[in-house]
């Protein structure tokens, strides 16, 4: 029986040694892979960086391209390569904006459609824009969207409902959790202004009452 136990123990030791060897081999393979990756990166093509310019006249295009090619020769080499893209000024502001968007801006996102570009362009010419379904609060800011007219209230007006609930149930303290974006901040500010207005009204009433008492 003692001999069998020893044999079992020796088998366990062998298994442990095999496991250790396998782990060491895996580590060596990983190190080799990392080295290969670094070599591969060194051999890859340089990263392309677009340099855009809005030029007053077309004759400056060649000067701009030569300057970019000189920069490539000095600094580009293996890490990155500069690509010269130029746009000349146009008399029409809308055409100018379109040419900049089409020629200079790459990787444009088309995730969701908003009336923001229409509002900016129309605001430049003081053309009114009617928002039928847009409920974002930012379109109420006349310093940004000059001629945007809305037919539905913004999301921040929900703060009026919260304020009415507080007044109805006589809540003095609430915890407000909002998203960290323009909509959340707008709703929070709206509620804060409503609460401040209520406090100022209360103070005025108290002052008037005190004055009436003094007169009596």
From TrEMBL:
Q: Does the keyword Transmembrane apply?
A: yes
The biased composition feature labelled Basic residues covers 201-216
Q: Where is the Receptor ligand binding region domain?
A: 62-199
Q: Record's superkingdom?
A: Eukaryota
What is a single cellular component term in the Gene Ontology annotation?
membrane
Going by the UniProt record, its keywords in alphabetical order are:
Membrane, Receptor, Transmembrane, Transmembrane helix
**Region feature Disordered, mapped onto this chain:** 1-36, 196-216
Name the InterPro entries for this protein: ANF_lig-bd_rcpt, Peripla_BP_I
Q: Does the keyword rRNA-binding apply?
A: no
Q: Where mainly found?
A: membrane
Q: Where in the cell is it found?
A: Membrane
Q: Which Pfam families does this entry report, sorted A to Z?
A: ANF_receptor
> Under which name does UniProt file this protein?
Glutamate receptor ionotropic, NMDA 1
């Amino acid at each position: 029986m003692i001999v069998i136990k020893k044999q079992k123990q020796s088998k366990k030791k062998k298994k442990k040694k095999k496991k250790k060897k396998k782990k060491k081999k895996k580590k060596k393979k990983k190190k080799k892979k990392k080295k290969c990756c670094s070599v591969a990166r060194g051999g890859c093509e340089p990263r392309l960086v677009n340099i855009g310019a809005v030029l007053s006249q077309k004759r400056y295009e060649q000067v701009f391209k030569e300057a970019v090619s000189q920069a490539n020769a000095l600094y580009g080499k293996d890490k990155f390569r500069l690509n010269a893209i130029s746009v000349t000024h146009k008399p029409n502001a809308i055409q100018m904006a379109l040419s900049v968007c089409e020629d200079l801006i790459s990787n444009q996102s088309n995730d969701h459609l908003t009336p923001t570009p229409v509002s900016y362009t129309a605001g430049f010419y003081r053309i009114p824009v009617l928002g039928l379904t847009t409920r974002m609060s930012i379109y109420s800011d006349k310093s940004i969207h000059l001629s945007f007219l809305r037919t539905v209230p913004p999301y921040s007006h929900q703060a009026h409902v919260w304020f009415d609930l507080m007044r109805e149930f006589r809540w003095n303290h609430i915890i407000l959790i909002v998203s960290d974006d323009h909509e959340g901040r707008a709703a929070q500010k709206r509620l804060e202004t409503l609460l401040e207005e209520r406090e100022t009204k209360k103070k005025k009433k108290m002052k008037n009452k005190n004055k009436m008492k003094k007169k009596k």
